[in-house]
UniProtKB/TrEMBL annotation:
GO terms for biological process: phosphorelay signal transduction system. Keywords: Phosphoprotein, Two-component regulatory system. The keyword Phosphoprotein applies. The lineage of its organism: Bacteria, Pseudomonadati, Bacteroidota, Sphingobacteriia, Sphingobacteriales. This is Response regulator. It comes from Sphingobacterium humi.
Length: 121
């Protein structure tokens, strides 16, 4: 099965690193630096199997993004994995409670990320 990931992160370096790591595992990806752009892409007829969502972004953070997405009944969206550098006690559960399907802390261990992707798709 061909996998396609949407990466939403306000840091282009993080997008580049994730795209490179995913490509080495045979996963194609597309990155955007703005959560609002990510919402627009998910509402358009693209096919993404999973979303990797940075939780700490300006304007619209990951928690607000999840709320907006979960409140939109007009489409089915792919599983969302929260990716955060915060990584404090309780963050995983807070992200899951907010609507994420999975959680990975930064710096991202690609093996952990692949395992998380496989568990949510």
């Amino acid at each position: 099965m061909d996998l396609n990931a949407l990466i939403i992160d306000d840091d282009k370096r993080n997008i580049f690193a994730l795209k490179t790591a995913l490509k080495s595992r045979g996963i194609l990806s597309y990155g955007v630096c703005c959560a609002k752009e990510g919402l627009l892409l998910l509402r358009a007829p693209h096919t993404f199997n999973v979303v990797l969502l940075d939780m700490m972004m300006p304007e619209l953070d990951g928690y607000e993004f999840l709320k907006a997405l979960r409140n939109d009944d007009h489409f089915d969206h792919p599983p969302i994995i929260a990716v955060t550098a915060r990584a404090m006690i309780g963050d995983r559960q807070n992200c899951i409670n907010a609507g994420a399907d999975g959680y990975v802390a930064k710096p991202v261990n690609i093996d952990v990320l692949i395992k998380e992707i496989n568990s949510v798709i």
